[in-house]
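User: Hey, quick favor. My workstation is busy. Could you predict this chain's structure for me?
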Amino acid sequence: MNDKATPPVLELANVTKTYQVKQGLFSAPRPLHALGGVSLRIHKKDVLGLVGESGCGKSTLAKVLLGLEAPTSGKVLVDGKEITRKERKLQARRIQPIFQDPYSSLNPRKSIEDIIALPLVAHRIGDAASRAGSVRRMLDLVGLPQRVLKGYPNQLSGGQRQRVAIARALVMNPEIVICDEPTSALDVSVQSQILNLLGDLREELGLTYLFISHNLAVVEHLATRVAVMYLGRVVEEAPAAELFAGPRHPYTQALLESVLTPDPNLSVPDTHLGASYPNPIAPPAGCHFHPRCAQVRDICKTTPPPHVTGPNGHVDCHLHTLPTT
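Assistant: No problem, here it is.
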């Protein structure tokens, strides 16, 4: 268990990201708040699972952390030091991504050796001999044979391609790895192999993960903490075991109830959230979740929810401040 009194290796402090979106040819741009004041702290060797429906802001958050997008406001800090736009190279050395689709994230015209060495070349790290040695070590680390070095991505299976993507992410010895749905494009039989590899690498290299996924079973398997996003905000955060045993936010409860079980006597679960997702350009008043909430109260429709902190996390919900009846 990490000592939470020590500074986090990665911190987001009230990060917002707003885009200006035009809905018609003659209409004025309107703001879309992709991130609405996200604050998170990740300690060394933790795995923070970030979950939520498509469109909730998970991938935007990943882009901000990788320096691909600048936050509209707020701060991104690594080891307590703010990362600015001028320090993108430093940010790239310390934070590396593993993307969702190993078929599109690898250049089909490059050899496996060139793909893995690319970060070293881009950052001018080492000479040709040292880079070749680093690539060979990475192949061993991710469980690929040396014979694939001169091959190309189309000669590999999906699982092998994702191992190449993992090797490319780790070749510069980053401290933090952003895993954006790293197994969702793979066969179920291969997913467990990649998840076990990520777990082994975390222990061996002392890595810290932000693991973005919509698959709660995968997050439960790998994460030490879980943050739940809804419409650009983190509505609940807690240690993984605690959150899965007793979710506090109605949205988290609905997500967990939607997970399929192996019991053949049970039907496909219903989240009771409906098929529609709120318009992020015109979010509902009060608590953004209230139109879909089975436990909605009058105050939820008019007043933003309070930030209720506990010993191990927080939840943004009126239900945890209203008197019980």
